[in-house]
Amino acid sequence: MIQVEVLLAWPDRVASRQLSLAPGATVAQAIAAAAIEGSAQCPAVAVHGVLAPSTQLLRDGDRVELLRPLLADPKDNRRRRARGS
Fold this sequence. Notes:
By secondary structure, the protein is of the alpha+beta class.
């Protein structure tokens, strides 16, 4: 068995699940097993901070991070700050 953590962090709450999965488990299988409310609204997933496809195989100790949607385009925010507004 491998031990992984699935994590979802919203501005107002954090949900985390520690899981024991069979070797060869994928990111998608970990997310399904964690059954964290709100995970369906997450457009992307990362493993230890690096974007990961749902088919990526997990290793013992991996942390699967469910990434929430962006509220604003980072490029627009940088442009706005550069203009000083």
